[in-house]
Amino acid sequence: MSAPMIIRARTGGPRAFVSDTLLLTGRNLRLALRTPQLLALATITPVMFVLLFRYVFGGSIHVPGYPSYVDYLIPGIIIQTSLFGGSSSAVGVAEDLAKGVTDRLRALPTSRTAILAARTLADLLRLAYTIGILIALGLLVGFRFGGTPAQVAAGLGVALLFGYACSWLFTLVGLAARNAESATMLGFIVTFPLVFASSIFTSPATFPGWLRSIAEAQPVTRVADALRELSSGADTTAAVPSALAWSVGILVVSAVLATWRFRRL
Question: Taking every annotated instance into account, which residue ranges of this chain make up the domain ABC transmembrane type-2 (predicted)?
Answer without folding.
Answer: 37-265
